[in-house]
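Researcher: Go.
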Amino acid sequence: MILRPRAEFLSLAEEFQSYILSFLSCKDILRCSFVCKALRQTYLSCSELQYITELGGQQLLPVPDMDNGNKTSFLTRLQLLRDKAHAWFKLDIHSSDTVIMAKVFPILPKPSQQIAIEHDWSPESLHSIPDADYFEVIMDPEENLIAIAYVIHGWPEDDSDKIYIDLGVLDGDGAHPQAAGRRLSLSGTVFQGDILASDELEVTICGRHITFWHSQRSTVYDGPNEENKMWWLQIWDWKHSTTSNCVISDPEGLGSSDFCFLGNDRLLTVSKDLKLYSIEDLSQAPQLLACFLMPVSVTSIECLFAMDDNTAHSSHLQRQVHQTMWTSDPKNRLLSFVACIRSEVSNSFTFIISTRIFFDLQVGVFGGMATIPWEYWGPLNSRIFPHDSQCRVGVSGNRVLHTFPATGATAGDEDPSHDTNYKLYLMDFSPLAVQRRQGLGTVVTEPSTIELTESVGKLTTFLPYVAVVFDRTFGADQLMDIWIEFICPSQT
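Model: Structure:
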């Protein structure tokens, strides 16, 4: 019997080994690196493999479109990632230096990383339809996309007003080459009748999705401190179709209801309760996966979306678009919102919730329940903090920047004194940070309990985190200056 020689993996050139290993997950790459000295050397000599494992360790995902056209070397990307992680260790709690804090808590990139598209639009080019009432012009430089939304009011012979959303390119006047068409078609269930002065109409671009939000005052009245609104939301995949059957509505929602994307196939609406939908197929009606009940009756809510992710929701801050090589994993983000609860006095609280809970449905954690009480999902996956009108809260990935009154003012104060001082807290909710705490910070694993109202009583939450508290205090004016420096970093 003649034995033919086999081509073994270790006999391949090192660059071929690296190429094959790059198709593995970060965990499998690390496992292979411990098999033998040869594979360990292959791993240590390849920046791409180390970059993949660093992304996984920081619970980040590469941005596919940007990654394909990115000329930055893997060695440079790896160094940027490591600098991002190590900035936490260099934090000086005795300083108010926003340069160091911005590295720990990145919101916007350096100006050199931002995309600049120069184009002059005349009023006639943006408002080219006679007798149209234009209410939204949204631009996404990352996609070279402009969306123009307008209303054509119905004449007496028409049944109702008509809303249109036209798509084009930012750097020219023609149609977008990747768009399915020039105009998106609205579902009849999203808008019917005439526009009222109190109606809210909003168009947003969220990566591959374009959304249209329409809210209208509800005839349902729940009390003097609560304003109910009917709202409708339609979602398109603008690159694949100009039509969509993906419509979500709530006839008795809060006036401040909102939504956010959890990846490309899930959407969470935030109102009196949190509702999770599957939007994998936009040609079909969205599927309600679960309703996560809030622990208290909420009268208003303000969502605080992650500043380093431009696909979750398209706020004005996030649309200062930049070239980014990675984004946070939707399974490992934080959802944050400020909720005002119904009580005898005005009480507001900041909810910090791990998005992992919205993906546990796949593993049957809740036994197939469609409506999930707070006791089943909330305490172990969240933290609740008091909030006053002067407090500031920001979210970036798994990190939270939060201010609390140092003395005097409490969460129930309507108008805290202008002289109130505030403490600045940096919190990292990453499980890896909690397990392997390094550098500054205290690991907080003990539960925290806050008193909400006399009728509800107390709520206890357990989500662990690492906290860093700055030594010095800040006045309200200083606090605003710091926040402006985070949002609009200097170009030096």
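Model: The first helix runs from residue 14 to 21.
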